[in-house]
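Here is an idea for our session: we take a single protein and study its fold together. Start from the sequence, derive the backbone structure tokens from it, and show both lines together. Once you have written the record down, we can walk along the chain together:
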Amino acid sequence: MRASVDNTARGPSAEPPQAGPHPLGGSANVLVRRGAHIDSRYVPLLGTIAVFLLTAGYGSIAYNGFFSVQVFLNLLIDNAFLCIVGVGMTFVILSGGIDLSVGSVIALTTMISAALVEHRHWSAAQAIPLVLAIGTAFGALMGWLIQRFRLQPFIVTLAGMFLARGLCYLISIDSISITDATYTAISQARIALPGTGASITVGAIIALVTLAVGMWFAHATEFGRTVYAIGGNEASAVLMGLPVPRTTVLVYTFSGFCSALAGVVFTFYMLSGYGLHAVGMELDAIASVVIGGTLLSGGVGFVAGTLFGVLILGIIQTLIAFDGSLSSWWTRIVIGALLFVFCLLQRAFEARRG
């Protein structure tokens, strides 16, 4: 139990309060300034939120119509699939791993869904559970290979990326449009938010539910605590008796499920299946997680931060669209520069923490 500190009672020679171990793994360096305790784990997240607020504030001042509920909801609507895959990627990076297969799994999900619905005349209720099961099994297989044979996650998931993308072209080399009434109805459905004049899509609601479940997993379950411990120091986690092998497999299983679920939402968004869907989305997901404040070395980060990382990527695209004079490639330039800055800040944070 950490003792409380009364600043008024401390003499000039009193020792400063020491940081205690954090239950989620790693050290919790507590900064004490004028009686306020600021946990250093929150510094990257607070930085991400500050960047988002500053960017949103600039857009609201610079462009008419930018500051509206619908504009901000559109950030989530247009990036719902990225938010979902980002939740799974957050757990992978928190554990000290990486998953390069997520974009290809999304494409494979859209292709299987489109082929089953359009060519085999399956219903959405039949196709969706199947593609979710396939994505989950795909992630579990990669996790088992990583854990069983002690392979590098980069190599295993890179192989998974090529495999899933190649399977797309075994189904069809062309795009398959989806005309199914259920998919069309879900794609076009809008849920009005009372009192705001704005609306939200089914995909955005799925993204918010996935985010809430991810936050619960990370901070209220043994699985989440073990993920943080593995990312902080895997050897220590093993010595503590934590279920490291099982958790490693489950991390990639969950990432595979999130990728498949993102593929389902992407299918609603595009109403088609195509082998070139979601090319490079694994890089966008990694960028969202890193910008969201999760350390690439693992052990420190928050699922909620990934949401703000996704929103920052979306708001950059929106600002360029509102400007009208800049090429869409400026989105990549700005994101690249921002990611570079966040990587430098992460290095500085790790050095200070160490």
Residues 132 and 260 are 5 Å apart (CA to CA). Residues 1-35 have pLDDT under 50 and may be disordered. The two ends are 23 Å apart (CA to CA). The chain has one domain: 41-353.
